[in-house]
Amino acid sequence: MPITDFKSLAIAADSFGAYFQRFSDRVSTLHFNDSDAFNAETLNRFSPGMNRSGSALVSSTNPWLKSVHDGLLNVLNGNSVQAATVPLSINNVSLTEGDSGTSSAVFTVALAVPQTQPLTVNYAIADGTAIAGSDYTATSGVLTFAANETRKTITVAIAGDTLIEPDETFSVNLSVPMDGAVLQVAQGTGTILSDDPTLLVNDVAISEGNNGASSLVFTVNLSSASTQSVTVDYATANDTATAGEDYTATNGTLTFNPGETSQTISVPILGDTIVENNETFVVNLSNAVNAAIADNQGIGTIQNDEPITLPPIVLTPQVSGFSSPVHIANAGDGSNRLFVVEQAGRIRIIQDGIVLPTPFLDITNIVRSGGEEGLLSVAFPPDYVSKRYFYVYYTDQNGDNVVACYQLTADDNVAESSAGQIILTMPHPTFSNHNGGQLAFGADGYLYIGSGDGGGGGDPDNNAQNLNSLLGKILRIDTESPGTITYRIPSSNPFSEPGDSDRTTHPDDPTDSDRDEIWALGLRNPWRFSFDRQTGDLYIGDVGQGAREEVDFQPAASLGGENYGWKIMEGSVQFSSGDTTGLVLPVAEYDHSQGRSITGGFVYRGTEEPTLQGIYFYADFTNGRIWGLQQTQFGNQSGWKSQLILDSPYGISSFGQDQAGNLYVADYSAGDIYKITT
Q: Is the peptide bond before 567 cis (omega within 30 degrees of 0)?
């Protein structure tokens, strides 16, 4: 610390003067100003050879002495001074305790610069977590360094015992009989390392099996044999495995007799034939007696041994004669009709296996068709029977994508084609591809819309990640609330602003940086998506760029706002630079050696084919392959398994679902409709 009252210090501290005189032979000159008001008695303490003339100057070849001299000189000039530093240090020492007798912890005190005169250092021992008298023998004393001597040692006796205790510490503290001096390293720490036996339990794994005939055996080891009896409690606890369903809960106490170093814990495993992820539980150790616990938890892994094998399917012909069918839907009205959308702008009805001659809707005069453009889907609102209107998604003559509403005529099989009301127009000015095209009502009664990224390779306008663009998204709007002219924004939409839910016209608020219609983003071309009619989960088939086709998933409990990654990610691989934090990766994907254009489908929830229950079907448009996707564990687990189950010759443009939950596919090229059967 700074010394500010050197006059008092000089009078009281004879030792300081003694140190000065001890090394005076190493001083060449020391001057102080005539104005300094020190009396001769004080100054003579620091003589011989001091005079009162000239300017202040000190020189010395000894760094320690130099700091002392500099301190004196600063005070003589009326300044504060930092305490001198003595170049002494002490090391830290660790040693094993032992079970009996004593061992020695030897500390080394080192002097950095040899001195021409003797130097003394005081030392004393202080408790840390180690206690003098029981863990070590306290000692204190004085070390004397002879001239040119640089090493001294301090020995502390350590008492061995067989007590179970952690590592313990004490300290050796140094001091010098020189007022205001500071040691470079003034404290050494002694660590008494416990050599008492420790307990640890291993991690183990086992194949589940189909019944309860197997056990998972954990081994608990004692690090060294003990002369005493050692005990430890154990108990199992759930992780992803559940006691009573996957394994039998077990607890107890292990006893290690003197000399024993190993015991085992056996946990019965409850095998089954359910396809599921690997599951884990733990064995916890506690309350050890005469030993310490080094590893208190063992992990048991129950490895699933039921390979997922989805049943084979058959595509059974239903009807033919359609022109470029792109969508199949039912009205949910109990009529058992299927509505087939033709790309050119017509919707045809299949009733009792027959295609009705008159189109249900014909808007070919306003639809621009070809490539990826055209009339792309139809959706029927809840309570369609009483409402008697429906919604379509099409590309208009300007190339923009339109959602419009049409009414029935008095004939339930014919709509009023000339009187559609436009609900939403999504400008699509640059490219003709990546239009999305799916409409579907969710269990919440809101209309969901799938829009593509606007086309071109690699989303050149960055629409999919732009919250001020409707493109490359799943949108969610309210078309059914009473008094709605076009649509409202659900107040629970993730990017909606206060008051947006009251809008009944296009909500184009220039002060709002986000489009409130957005439900999810980061999609390239979500050509087909669907809701699981039993769970409400959302499955999205998103067509890839040049590497991956993907199935994205949104659980029914989602609050929206998922970012599925495009164009930062294409499937699970990075496509371009960008922050990947929080992006939602697909639950299934395939590369372009397996296909090049995914067609999303449905989860089977019918009753005619019970072996298909719960399987999500999807296909590739370019080669006709059909895959099944299944969650491999129920609840909140996220395991998935996808399997190729049919290699068909068809250009599958869409799946469809009738009111009973049966599934269909459309062959775009031949115009045929097939039913999925086993």
A: yes
In a domain, residue 511? The reply is yes
Residue 82 pLDDT level (bands cut at 50, 70, 90): very low
Can you tell me the distance from the alpha carbon of 507 to that of 85, in angstroms, rounded to the nearest whole number? 75
Tell me if 643 is assigned to some domain: yes
Strand order in the sheet with 375-379: 375-379, 389-395, 401-407, 421-426
- The answer to whether 328 and 233 have CB atoms below 8 angstroms apart is no
Q: Is 526 helix (H, G, I), strand (E, B) or coil?
A: coil
In a domain, 599, yes or no: yes
Are the C-beta atoms of residues 587 and 552 closer than 8 Å to each other? yes
Evaluate if residue 189 carries a pLDDT over 50.
yes
Q: Give, in order, the Cα–Cα distances in Å from 8 to each of 13, 38, 81, 181.
A: 8, 11, 14, 16
Domain span at 253: 198-303
What percent of the chain is helix, strand and coil (3-state, nearest 5)? 5, 40, 50
Alpha helices in 539-661 (DSSP H): none
161 with 261, same domain?
no
Nearest to 379 by CA among 461, 283, 450, 325: 450
What average pLDDT does the chain have? 86
pLDDT for residue 31: 36
176 near 85, Cβ under 8 Å?
no
pLDDT at position 32 over 80: no
For residues 195 and 424, what is the distance between their CA atoms, to the nearest angstrom?
Answer: 77
The pLDDT value recorded for residue 13 is: 35
**Which CATH number does the domain housing residue 234 bear?**
2.60.40.2030
Q: What is the pLDDT of residues 437-490, one digit of tens each?
A: 999 999 999 999 999 999 999 999 999 999 999 999 999 999 999 999 999 999
d(CA 515, CA 521): 11
pLDDT at 57 over 90: no
CB atoms within 10 A of CB 673: 24
Encode pLDDT of 314-371 as tens digits: 999 999 999 999 999 999 999 999 999 999 999 999 999 999 999 999 999 999 999 9
In the structure encoding, which two tokens stand for residue 631, read together? 């969650």
DSSP label of 612: G
pLDDT of amino acid 115: 79
Looking at the structure, tell me whether residues 577 and 469 fall in a common domain: yes
**What token pair was written down for 394?**
């099409």
Q: Of 40, 57, 83, which residue is a domain's last? A: 83
Taking the alpha carbons of 358, 361, 364, 370 in that order, is the dihedral positive or negative?
Answer: negative
Pick the last residue of a domain from 32, 58, 83: 83
